[in-house]
């Protein structure tokens, strides 16, 4: 299934790139020559943003398939009724439309995804119910609801698309300048490809650092939002518990890490800040709001 989704995603991205180029060249009569600044810039935007946009549009479907999420349409247990009612209550407090609610079998974690505020999903792992009380789970859900409220899925897509476009543009611009040329000024295609590829690898490292910095920033915002709509106790003690679990036991798959409640990696490339810093941020926001912490 993972291979099938990978193939579908890549076919969708390639189709969107070729369709965009076709529309620009045939309908708008704009020639996309990558040897010119304008042509390269337009091509960079198309290539850089296509994957991010396709991922966003398919995010709910991909999450359901890859994580095995079971959407709760009609609650059948008390736990499901509580979960749906809690999501509805917190969504109303946050001022966002009611998202789809789902559960999945996996490590103690939760995530929010979806292409827009009105078309979103909040999913909670069944193991979260085994290790937390209802107030702590409510804090986790409040955090995920704030990802939806802040439009984090969309802003992350924009950031990633801009960074991808810049990496594509800069690497090929530099390659075009430094690659050997023949007597007629034509760039050696093999050198151009090799230099472009090497620069993409290097620049992608820096682009990833920027994207992960933004991801950590939005985690702090989602924690603060959880305090505002649900108080500090739930999210604080939930994170404290999750911070004590070995990282391999709470990690989500790579494609979902940025939208979970916790994540781990070296700090510069981590999608989430260290739990200790998040707890300090929660206490600071709680004091500002008048809570006795």
From TrEMBL:
Name of the featured protein: Protease HtpX homolog
Pfam families found in the cross-reference section: Peptidase_M48
Keyword Endoplasmic reticulum among UniProt keywords: no
Cofactor(s) listed in the protein's UniProt record: Zn(2+)
Family under the similarity heading: Belongs to the peptidase M48B family.
HAMAP family per UniProt: Pept_M48_protease_HtpX
BP term (GO), one: proteolysis
Topology class, membrane: Multi-pass membrane protein
GO CC aspect terms: plasma membrane
Cofactor note: Binds 1 zinc ion per subunit.
Domain of life, source organism: Bacteria
Binding site for Zn(2+): 143, 147, 219
UniProt-annotated location(s): Cell membrane
GO MF annotations, alphabetized: metalloendopeptidase activity; zinc ion binding
Top-level class of the enzyme under EC nomenclature: hydrolase
EC number(s) per entry: 3.4.24.-
Active site: 144
Taxonomic path: Bacteria, Pseudomonadati, Campylobacterota, Epsilonproteobacteria, Nautiliales
Annotated Peptidase M48 domain residues: 80-284
Protein keywords: Cell membrane, Hydrolase, Membrane, Metal-binding, Metalloprotease, Protease, Stress response, Transmembrane, Transmembrane helix, Zinc
């Amino acid at each position: 299934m993972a291979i099938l989704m990978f193939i579908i995603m890549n076919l969708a991205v390639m189709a969107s790139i070729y369709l965009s180029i076709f529309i620009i060249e045939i309908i708008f009569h704009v020639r996309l020559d990558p040897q010119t600044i304008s042509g390269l810039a337009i091509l960079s935007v198309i290539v850089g943003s296509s994957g991010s946009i396709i991922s966003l549009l398919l995010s709910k479907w991909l999450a359901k398939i890859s994580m095995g999420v079971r959407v709760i349409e009609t609650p059948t247990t008390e736990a499901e009724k509580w979960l749906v009612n809690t999501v509805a209550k917190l969504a109303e407090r946050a001022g966002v439309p009611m998202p789809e609610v789902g559960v999945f079998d996996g490590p103690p974690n939760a995530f929010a995804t979806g292409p827009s505020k009105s078309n979103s999903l909040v999913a909670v792992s069944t193991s979260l119910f085994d290790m937390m009380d209802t107030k702590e789970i409510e804090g986790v859900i409040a955090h995920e609801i704030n990802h939806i409220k802040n439009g984090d899925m969309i802003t992350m897509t924009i950031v990633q698309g801009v960074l991808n476009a810049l990496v594509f543009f800069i690497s090929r611009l530099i390659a075009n300048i430094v690659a050997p040329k023949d007597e007629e000024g034509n760039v050696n295609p093999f050198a151009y490809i090799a230099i472009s590829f090497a620069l993409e690898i290097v620049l992608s490292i820096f682009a990833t650092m920027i994207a992960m910095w933004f991801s950590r920033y939005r985690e702090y915002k989602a924690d603060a939002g959880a305090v505002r709509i649900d108080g500090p106790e739930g999210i604080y003690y939930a994170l404290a518990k999750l911070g004590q679990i070995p990282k391999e036991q709470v990690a989500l798959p790579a494609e979902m890490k940025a939208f979970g409640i916790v994540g781990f990696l070296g700090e510069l490339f981590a999608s989430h800040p260290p739990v200790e810093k998040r707890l300090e941020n929660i206490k600071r926001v709680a004091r500002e709001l008048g809570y006795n912490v």
